[in-house]
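Support reply, case 0932

Customer input (verbatim):
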Amino acid sequence: MKRRDFLKIGGTALGGAALLHLTTTGIAHGEAPASFRIVQLSDTHVGHPLGTKAFERAVDLINAADPQPDLVLFTGDLTHDSDDAAEHARRMKTFRTIADRLRVKTRYYVPGEHDAALDGGTLFRENFGETHYAFDHRGVHFVALDNVSLGKPAVGAAQLAWLQKDLARYGRTTPLVVFTHRPLFDLRPDWEWFTSDGASVTNILAPYDNVTVLYGHIHRADHHVAGRLQHHAARSLIFAFPDPASAAEKKPIPFDPAQPFRNLGVRYVQNAPLSIDDVELSLAEIAGANGVQQIVRTAEAPRVVEISAKRFEFTPREVHLRVGEPVTIRLVATDRAHGLLLKDLGIDLDAGTDKPDSVTITPNRRGTYDAICDHYCGAGHGGMRMTFIVE
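Our regenerated output:
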């Protein structure tokens, strides 16, 4: 069985959603593969305001699809992390409430690091059961892999042994769909876009004729082919990251308040070989799953630089700006109230944990400027500084 006979993909994707139409041929594990549709949703980050709103919007659009997909796969970071266990549990409950609005009742989940890295997957298992498992659907074998619950980017020896045993029951022509959170290959290790034992996973998968890997984590659409494995990442529902091949830094693509769903686009995937068309949600409204589009264009907004503040530390510690370029500086406090003060550039922000603050500036002269936190936050407060470099 050739790949083009297996994977025929069509439909839509929205935000971190990909509506895939899979057409299969041949016999797999006693069942003749048949055509079906799945939706992949990734990085919903419920608890983050944009993630929650984008997820609600995604649910509405999926519910409008006709015909409805057979399955919905969630590839991790269902929630936005919180050090407060009770708050994290509330966010998980909110996620489930929104997910339960889906007309599609057959849904499968894997955790992301925001869901499971701090507690080893305890909260996830309380809500969804085991973090790795397998099932069959219309002649295709699905495998859910957990590469976050060990607290680092790894599947682990126990899960590798389980995977080897699970796949030993299937012939080499069995179509496989693997869904996980982090990429199983070294996409950008310095950005933590990898799985340390991903090569061990792909070695187990390599003998099979047709393997499709669906993942999230990188907050952007990406397509990678290695041997007989095809890896496909869906966009997120919170913010987008830049192209790792051309960007020097891992920082979110600027958020535009006037276009809150920008870079959380719609992806059309159809036929084989894959034909992919990405359309931003800020530029299009999609009517159902039939591809009818109404394009709504909006003006460009200033680039957004988000700075996170916690006791004694700003992240990032260095920001590069350009003379004459309008830019919005947004301060987010993660543990208590913090300030960001740099009078020479007109920055004087005050952020609480539930109230970010922002200002738009246009630097007019080059230089290196030091910014401080002007909200006392403890004995290390005096060292809480960061640098702005205007070029």
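We compared this against your earlier run and they match. Two observations from our side: The two ends are 56 Å apart (CA to CA). The chain has a mean pLDDT of 82. Please reopen the case if you see a mismatch on your end.
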